[in-house]
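Exercise 7. Given the encoded structure of a 66-residue chain, write a plausible sequence.
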């Protein structure tokens, strides 16, 4: 397997893994909110949004590696 193909597969893995984290952050945001901790909930929402923003960079890297 050539190096660019390896990089592409690695970026796919990072994006998938990062999406899983983003989903977990939203779950924790909901839990924090249900337990009355709105500050913590907002922080988890921000973590989710930043993770999704990071995925746009992974996507750009994937396109650049093609």
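Solution.
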């Amino acid at each position: 397997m050539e190096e660019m193909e390896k990089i592409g597969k690695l970026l796919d893995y990072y994006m998938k893994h990062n999406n899983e984290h983003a989903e977990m952050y939203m779950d924790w945001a909901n839990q924090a909110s249900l337990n009355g901790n709105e500050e913590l909930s907002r922080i988890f929402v921000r973590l989710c949004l930043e993770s999704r923003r990071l995925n746009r960079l992974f996507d750009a890297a994937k396109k650049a590696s093609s």
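Remark. The chain has one domain: 3-65. Students should compare their own answers with the one above.
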